[in-house]
Specification:
Number of domains of chain B: 1
Mean pLDDT of chain B: 84
Mean pLDDT of chain A: 89
Largest sheet of chain A: 2 strands, antiparallel
Strand order of the largest sheet of chain A: 1-2
Structural class of chain A: mainly alpha
Oligomer: heterodimer
Number of helices of chain B: 3
Radius of gyration of chain B: 20 Å
Helix content of chain A: over 70%
Order of helices and strands of chain B: HHH
Shape of chain B: extended
Distance between the termini of chain B: 26 Å
Chain lengths: ~230, ~100
C-alpha cells in the first residue's frame, strides 16, 4: 500500500500533499485541546503496535501479499484526529528510516492510510450508533474496519490511475487490482479490530471510555466497569 | 480521586509493557514467518518497468542494517524502531497537550 517515488504524477502528488496538510493542521489543533493525559501512553503504545503489525505480510491473491493498516483501530480507540497523527508518525518514520513509501508520495500515503483509513471507520461507527443505538457494535466495527482498508486501496488506485503517463494502467485497472487484493486484508483488519476492542473492553474499559467515537455509545454508558475506572 | 489516578497510571504502565512485548512478537513473526512481501503495487510496477526507487536514500533500506546481513539484525532493528516510534509519539502527544494547556 506504500506508494514509492516515481509512481505518482506531480499534480496528483501535490494535490494529495495539500489535502493531507489540511487534515494534519486540523488534527493537531483538535488533539492539543482534547488529549487526556492518560491517553498519551496508550497513543504511544498503539502507534508502536501498528508499526509492528505492518511488518507482517499476509499472503493474499495471486501470490501477492498485503499488511494490516491499523487505521480503524487507531481511529476508533484514539479518535480520528489522534489516530491521524499516530498513523502519520508511523508513515513518516517508515519513509525516512526504511524507504517504505517515497518522500514525494508521502502526502498520498498519509492521505490513504492516515486520513481515509482512520476517519472512515470513525465516522461510520458514529453513523451506525445513530441508526442502531449501539446494537450490533462488533459487527459495525468489523464492517468499518473492512471499509477502511477497502477505501484506502481504492483511493490509492485512483491516485495511481490518474497518474497517467507515469502509471500507465489507467484508473480502471489500478483501482480494481488494488481493491480486489486489499479486500482480503480488509477481512483480517476487521477481525483484528474487533478482537482488540473486545479485549480492551474486558481489561481496560477506561481506555475506550476516553474515545471520542465510543464514549457516547449506550453500550459503554451502561458499563459499570467504565464508571469504575473513570476519574 | 488521586488513588484512581495512580491506579490508572499503574494500569497504563502494565498495558504498555504487555503491548510492547506483543509488538516485539509481531516484529519476530514479520521477520521469520511472514517476511515474504510482494504487494499488488510491486507486481503492477514490475509489469510497467517502473523501478520504484526512492528519491531519498534511507539509512535502513527494506528494514535491514546495511552490512549486517542477518535476519537477527532486522529483528533488532524492528524492536529498536518500536521503542523509537513509541517515544516519538509520546513526545509529540505531550508537546501538543502542553501547547493546548498554554493556549
Amino acid at each position: 500500500m506504500h506508494i514509492p517515488d516515481g509512481f505518482l504524477s506531480l499534480p496528483i502528488a501535490i494535490a494529495a500533499f495539500a489535502t493531507t496538510i489540511v487534515f494534519w493542521i486540523v488534527s493537531f489543533r483538535k488533539v492539543k485541546n482534547s488529549l487526556d493525559e492518560r491517553q498519551v501512553p496508550i497513543m504511544g503504545l498503539l502507534t508502536a503496535l501498528f508499526f509492528a503489525a505492518q511488518m507482517i505480510n499476509y499472503p493474499i491473491l495471486g501470490g501477492t501479499t498485503a499488511h494490516l493498516l491499523g487505521g480503524a483501530s487507531l481511529g476508533i480507540i484514539l479518535g480520528p484526529y489522534a489516530g491521524c497523527i499516530s498513523m502519520s508518525i508511523i508513515l513518516v518514520l517508515q519513509c525516512l528510516l526504511f524507504g517504505d513509501g517515497g518522500i514525494t508520495a508521502l502526502g498520498a500515503n498519509a492521505f490513504n492510510m492516515g486520513v481515509v483509513s482512520v476517519f472512515v471507520p470513525a465516522l461510520l461507527i458514529l453513523a451506525f450508533n445513530k441508526v442502531t443505538k449501539g446494537r450490533g457494535l462488533f459487527a459495525w466495527i468489523f464492517i468499518s474496519a473492512f471499509a477502511a482498508d477497502f477505501l484506502s486501496a481504492i483511493f490509492a488506485g485512483v491516485e495511481l490511475g490518474f497518474s497517467v503517463p507515469t502509471f500507465q494502467y489507467g484508473i480502471k485497472i489500478a483501482v480494481s487490482a488494488m481493491a480486489i487484493n486489499h479486500s482480503v486484508i480488509g477481512v483480517i483488519e476487521g477481525i483484528v479490530t474487533v478482537v482488540l476492542i473486545a479485549t480492551l473492553l474486558k481489561v481496560r474499559p477506561d481506555v475506550l471510555s476516553k474515545s471520542s467515537i465510543l464514549k457516547d455509545l449506550p453500550f459503554f454508558k451502561a458499563s459499570n466497569r467504565v464508571e469504575q475506572w473513570s476519574a | 480521586m488521586k488513588v484512581k489516578g495512580d491506579l490508572v497510571k499503574s494500569l497504563n504502565r502494565k498495558t504498555v509493557v504487555v503491548g510492547l512485548a506483543l509488538a516485539a512478537v509481531f516484529v519476530v513473526i514479520g521477520n521469520f514467518v511472514f517476511s515474504y512481501a510482494l504487494e499488488t503495487l510491486d507486481v503492477q510496477a514490475e509489469r510497467l518497468g517502473l523501478s520504484g526507487e526512492n528519491v531519498l536514500e534511507a539509512p535502513f533500506p527494506e528494514y535491514t542494517i546495511p552490512g549486517f546481513d542477518s535476519i537477527w539484525g532486522s529483528v533488532l532493528l524492528g524492536i529498536a524502531s518500536l521503542f523509537l516510534i513509541f517515544t516519538v509519539t509520546i513526545v509529540v502527544a505531550n508537546l501538543l497537550k502542553k501547547k493546548g494547556q498554554d493556549s
